[in-house]
Amino acid sequence: MKQMTYAEAIRDGMRIEMQRDPNVYLQGEDVAQFGGCFGVTAGLYDEFGPKRIMNTPISEAVIVGSAVGAAAAGLRPIAEIMFVDFMGCCMDELFNQAAKMRYMFGGKAKVPMVVRTPCGAGMGAAAQHSQCVESWFTHIPGVKTVMPATPADAKGLMIAAIRDDNPVMYIEHKQLLPVPGDVPEGEYVVPLGKADIKREGSDITIVAWSWMLHKALAATEELAAKGINAEVLDPRTLVPLDKDAILKSVAKTGKLLIVHEEVKTSGFGGEIAALVCEEGFDYLDAPIIRVTPPDVPIPFNPILEGAFIPGEEKIIKAVEALF
Amino acid sequence: MNLKKEQLLDMYKKMVTIRAFESKAVELFAAGQIPGFVHLYLGEEAIATGVCANLEKKDFIASTHRGHGHLIAKGGDIKLMMAELFGRTTGYCKGKGGSMHIADVDLGILGANGIVGAGMPIATGAAFACKYKGTDAVAVAFFGDGASDRATFHESLNMASIWKLPIVFLCENNGWAISNAQETHQNITDISDRASAYGIPGVSVDGNDVIAVFEAASAAIDRARKGDGPTLVECKSWRWRGHFEGDPATYKDPKDQEEWLTKDPIPRLEKNMLKLKYATQAELDDIKAEAEAEIEAAVKFAEESPQPDPKELLTDVYAD
């Protein structure tokens, strides 16, 4: 084990795969000498040089689109999109090209590529630099969606994402980049599609991912003091989703609360709720509750932004209402 | 002209094969035998043929919604193509792609594409892969006049120019972006003028003259292979049919249509070959008859091929 931050863990995962496989390369805006807007790629240029770590023009469509072509031609690109909010500039390349190529071609193509992109509020970055929009991607058959919450998962899922033969959206949270944690050394792989129980409990299941996992964990202490022993499940990857782990946990606790940072309507929480209604209705002894931001753009003012982000208090209140 | 007799005969065969394939597609679509959309390449056969005559198996192309010609010219199997048009399991994509998504990755054909202008970033990435792996393979991005207005055109030419990628941007200016004539959607006549914005060469040629296309593509592809970067080549032609089969193309002036039909690239090449004594009329007729027989055999193959099992719906979404 080694102490490192979430950002360092992402970098460690990329570095290990780049050392292991010469077909892995990284391209994106300001990812070379500058080290990326959030410093995640710092030092990689010095280690791997200009052939494998490339600054691109501000051209999201060709950043992702050329990754599709390079992947189909035998490489394993990592494309960085500076903010997930910019995915609107390259959505065709992801959802009509990368995602569908294999199916459209009757299974005769492989598109092994990773799109790395940071999400999340809490920086006063306002409506176009703060969003979580993971359900945009989970709605696309052919794409996998990964959202690590801890440094160890960040590393293990990065390695798994690069080794996967499909397009993977790897969404890192800006608030988590400086968070430290114990990370296994060497080729540590966290398989895609395996949830992790981050806290065991018996009274209610809280499903939360990315930054919201930490909010949920923080809430459990006060809940425990109030006599509610919450289980916190981190799906880690939304596609593929570890349905069995969610159903198993709800079978044990009888209650389900979902926390996410996407706005409520059409957020991925609705999908998890529908899954449990369809396949685990008999386990439930209370309604399924979602704690999410309201359906609004993200405001600039820190007080308003704070009111947007789901926090511990909202989670505690929502859980208490079920008992 | 650097073309040898065999090369010209081969190009002639390709052109008449595309013509026969597309003419058959007109018939089949009208008869209700092909589901979905088909966008035909009739009248533009010289472009794909002249370009792909310069390419090898290791080279890549990204095609368009009007892609049958590119596929045939790059060496695609006509039987598998026809079966795909019919949606059969023996088709290139097991019936999952149809006309707009035929691909043969092993032949470097990275797919027709249902999104106008989407092939350029993909070809840019394939060219990147060629350079990254240190091969001398190249990529050609086919696209139309309409696609040259898309952001992907700008982003791809810009990236390819700064990285000196081995790619040719091959614009097929067939005069029409669906129902819009060129002068209504861009304020230029020669799309190759746009090359200067990227500091790369741009050239416009008569797209109905297969020899002119071959020579322009040859220069651009040589330049790419040598590591000197991309070229924008514009081939001016005319789309004989509507945008898709079923489009009556009422927006075309019948006089223009008539004039362009007289510029048919196939008789032009025939005339040239007869003049050069590369073939007799009887030999050319034989090649045509052979192409037509191949198309008939492809239709028979497609018609006799099985429909997919509904279970196929669920396969090929993800690679294991």
CATH superfamily of the largest domain in chain A: Thiamin diphosphate (ThDP)-binding fold, Pyr/PP domains
The Rg value of chain A, from CA coordinates, equals: 19 Å
Strand portion of chain B: 5-15%
Q: Number of folding domains of chain A?
A: 2
What is the CATH topology of the largest domain in chain A?
A: Rossmann fold
Q: What share of the residues of chain B lie within helices? A: 40-55%
Separate helix tally of chain A: 12
Mean of all residue-level pLDDT scores of chain A: 98
Helix content of chain A: 25-40%
Query: SSE order of chain A in H/E notation?
Result: EHEHEHEHHEHEHEEEEHEEHEHEHH
- What is the radius of gyration of chain B computed over CA atoms, rounded to a whole number of angstroms? 19 Å
Distance between the termini of chain A: 40 Å
Q: State the CATH topology of chain B.
A: Rossmann fold
CATH architecture of the largest domain in chain A: 3-Layer(aba) Sandwich
State the CATH class of the largest domain in chain A.
Alpha Beta
Q: Report the strand count of chain A.
A: 14
The gross shape of chain A turns out to be: globular
Summing up helix and strand content along with how strands pair, one would put the structural category of chain A as alpha/beta
Overall pLDDT of chain B, averaged? 97
Description:
The complex is a heterodimer of chains A (323) and B (320). By secondary structure, chain A is of the alpha/beta class. Chain A has 2 domains: 2-183, Thiamin diphosphate (ThDP)-binding fold, Pyr/PP domains (Rossmann fold, 3-Layer(aba) Sandwich), CATH 3.40.50; 196-320, 3-Layer(aba) Sandwich (Rossmann fold), CATH 3.40.50. Chain A contains 12 helices and 14 strands. In chain A, the strands form 3 sheets. A 7-stranded mixed sheet of chain A has the order 3-2-4-5-7-6-12, sandwiched between helices. In chain A, strands 9-11-10-13-14 form a 5-stranded mixed sheet, sandwiched between helices. Chain A is globular and about 60 Å long. With 320 residues, chain B is an alpha/beta fold. Chain B has a single domain (5-300), classed as Rossmann fold (3-Layer(aba) Sandwich), CATH 3.40.50. Chain B has 11 helices and 7 strands. In chain B, the strands form 2 sheets. Chain B has a 5-stranded parallel sheet with strand order 1-2-3-7-6, sandwiched between helices. In chain B, strands 4-5 form a two-stranded antiparallel sheet. The longest helix of chain B has 26 residues, at 5-30. The interface between A and B is large, with 42 and 49 residues.
